[in-house]
Amino acid sequence: MESTIFLDDLLKLYLQNSQNFSPPPNCIVDIIVPIYNGYEFLVPMLASMEHTKVNYHLFLINDCSPDPRISPYLQSYAKEHANATVIENDSNKGYIKSVNLGFSHSKHHVVVLNTDIMLPENWLERLIYPILSDSKIASVTPYSNAGYLCSFPLAGEDNPLLNGLDYQEIDRHFSSITPNYPCLPTGVGFCMALNHNVLTEIGFYNEEEYINAYAEENDWCQHAIRAGYKNVLADNLFVYHKHHGSYNQKDVSSFRTHNAQVLQMKFPSFFSDVAFYLAEQPNNRLINLLILLCLCNDTRNPTCLLLGAPPQSNTGEIQADNLKKYIKSDASTLLLTYNGTHYRLDFFSPDYHFEYALHTLCTLGTLCKILSVMEIEINDPSICPDINAILN
């Protein structure tokens, strides 16, 4: 059974973010965007890419898109952006060869982006920082609603945006987090930063054995691990991913099966390592905290704090059958009780229930501010007799 989680400790651990993620003024990052159709995603993605102050050079690789809008748009974009280079493939070479073409032009650390993503403010600052600060980091992947190992709120799933929130609003809470950069068995290619020095040492994506676009980044990340490097999660960055809206190719199932078999043969423990990561959920406490922050700060449904115990069973535990009465429609509800040893704070929403403890009520005022508590109901004054003084 998981030990008691003290929310005040958790907030101190994750919300004391004083790091400066601004790279050196001479830092340049190369961004590679392979393109095959997806015009409706490409235009807003490129607009969101500009949400950064980091200097970058952009390689837009048109892989012979049949959509007649793509090439003129890219040429027009490049004329308006001096840092953009358009590369037109004379035939459809596929995702992997297109990315490798971009790698061959790169002279700096690299970011590979799908076209079906949206990038928040200061995204590149946070994505490239781990590589700039640790030469043993091979790749960096952010959280996303559809990022497999890096999916939020449910890992391994293609999630809708939590509670219908805007992706920038979700990222606002991620950006407040002090990152730990936990290690991953692999990066995820929808939005991934790669260390230029590692690319030089172990080579580009394997285009000889892998077809089109599946498992090529897994192969590269596994080679990096074998060479003594690590792949990490940028746990202070959230990127929206439409998924399957980028690089539309025919006969997907056939090459996915082929690529998975190649990967399994070369790295026999890979799929079990991924399964173990998903089962262990090493970042689970942070995920739950971010869910709490997102939902409590959703201005459409103001958060209510209840001071006082609900009906209890003989054992003193909150009865599951009585929880629904503490959820006010779609709002987030916090319930503060005292169990004789410590204060207990339960979070209820229609889809989630988290149980925390508090060392002291001295931090209650700060908690109410962080969690945007707009209403307090006092059911049991003895729980917190000095509530007004604490909040003031």
The radius of gyration over CA amounts to 24 Å
Distance between the termini: 37 Å
DSSP helix fraction: 25-40%
Q: Name the beta content range.
A: 15-25%
Number of helices: 13
- Overall pLDDT metric: 91
Q: How are helices and strands ordered from N to C?
A: HEHEHEHEEHEHEEHHEHHHEEEEHEH
Let me know the largest β-sheet.
Answer: 9 strands, mixed
| Secondary-structure class | alpha/beta
- The strand count comes to 14
Q: pLDDT below 50 for ≥5 consecutive residues: which ranges?
A: none
**Tell me, what's the shape?**
elongated
Describe this structure in words.
With 392 residues, the chain is α/β, with parallel strands linked by helices. 33% of the residues lie in helices and 21% in strands. Helix 2 (39-49) links the parallel strand 1 (28-35) and strand 2. The two termini are 37 Å apart. The model has no long low-confidence stretch (mean pLDDT 91).
Summarize the structure.
The chain is an alpha/beta fold and 392 residues long. It has 13 helices and 14 strands. The mean pLDDT is 91.
